[in-house]
Design a protein that fits this description.
Elements (H helix, E strand, L loop, with lengths): L3 E5 L4 H12 L3 E6 L14 E3 L5 H10 L4 E4 L6 H6 L1 H22 L3 E7 L22 H20 L2 E7 L1 E3 L17 H10 L5 E4 L11 E2 L1 E3 H16 L5 E5 L5 E2 H12 L5 E4 L8 E2 L4 H7 L8 H19 L5
């Protein structure tokens, strides 16, 4: 059986870390990316095929040329705010693009898929922690498009025999502990790099959106999971399918949440000085807390977070930001 895996979006943040984990596990990751939001320099562990998931012929040719036995699918737009202002973009890329990918897989006989989903499919859950049976009621187009694909995967399995694992991430964070790849979004919307950039003086004070949530310190709580743990979970999901495992949807988180103020305090400790911040009103649609119940990942995939303690997340993210910061010449004394 081929050990080649087509990794759509493999030049992006989570996709590139997954490629490294695949290579370490003995697979050959073939990155398929149009580089619109990914980075050529992040493709380091296998070949790159430049193409769009909406181009069925090019996807099918890549699957055939590299004898791929399975697909990891990361190629999606993931800015919640942008999805609200331009939902057409998200439906075209995240839904139509994915359905085109699935057709190319059917054409070439590739019947295993690990899908990058999200806790945004749960919307504003009323109970914590969040299990896989929590109602999925997304409150933005980004979450809606991911849920649409989860539902499509179910029916493609029923009708065509496709087996898939949808991995519902909580807050991806941190960077490669070896320092080879990291987080490079433009624009950057994730809290931890924004906090660190504010601390390093390369960006304005970070905004705390909402200080009146029903949480211990009034700020929103999230479950942060190190990107290396996420990548390792994708390999476990791939192994599950390769061993004949059934389709599933699985939460990826730690079961422990941190507030915005706790993140700022941890960053301040890491950099050795206070982090400048400003308080701002809540953003519409932001839940007070999102914390995973990761027990299914443990029982089904044999996976648990191993490097998602807050110190490791902040330390690896800071090392990457300092490298970018110094390289760009943006540092200020």
């Amino acid at each position: 059986m081929s050990q080649s895996v087509l990794v759509t979006g493999g030049a992006g943040y989570i996709g590139s870390h997954a490629c490294k984990a695949l290579a370490q596990a003995g697979y050959t990751p073939v990155t398929y990316d149009n580089l619109s939001r990914g980075h050529r320099h992040a493709v380091r562990w296998g070949p790159l095929v430049e193409g769009d998931v909406a181009d069925r012929a090019t996807v099918a040719a890549a699957l055939k040329q590299h004898h791929a036995s399975s697909v990891m699918h990361f190629a999606a737009f993931a800015y919640v705010g942008e999805s609200g202002t331009d939902p057409a973009l998200y439906y075209r890329n995240n839904v139509i693009g994915t359905l085109t990918l699935l057709e190319a897989m059917r054409e070439t006989g590739v019947d295993r898929l690990v899908f990058s989903s999200t806790c945004a499919t749960y919307g504003l859950p009323q109970t914590m922690p969040i299990g896989e049976s929590t109602p999925q009621l997304p409150v933005n187009p980004y979450g809606e498009t991911k849920l649409a694909i989860e539902r499509a995967l179910h029916w493609y399995g029923e009708a065509y025999g496709l087996r898939s694992v949808a991995l519902r991430y909580f807050n991806a964070s941190g960077c490669d502990r070896g320092g080879e790849i990291g987080e490079e979004h433009d624009p950057e919307t994730h809290l931890i790099p924004l906090v660190l950039r504010a601390a390093l003086g390369s960006m304005p004070p970070v905004s705390i959106f909402g200080t009146d949530y029903p949480t211990p310190d009034g700020t929103a709580i999230r479950d942060y999971i190190h990107v290396e743990d996420l990548a390792r979970a994708h390999v476990r999901a791939l192994d599950h399918l390769a061993q004949g495992g059934a389709s599933a949807a699985v939460n990826l988180g730690t079961g422990r949440g941190y507030s915005v103020r706790e993140i700022i305090a941890a960053a301040a400790k890491a950099v050795g000085h206070d982090v400048p911040y400003r308080e701002a009103p809540r953003r519409a649609g932001d839940p007070a807390a999102l914390v995973a119940d990761p027990s299914l990942a443990a029982s089904l995939l044999g996976w648990r977070a191993e490097c998602s303690d807050l110190d490791t997340i902040i330390r690896t993210a800071l090392a990457w930001e300092m490298r970018r910061h110094n390289t760009s010449g943006a540092a200020r004394e």
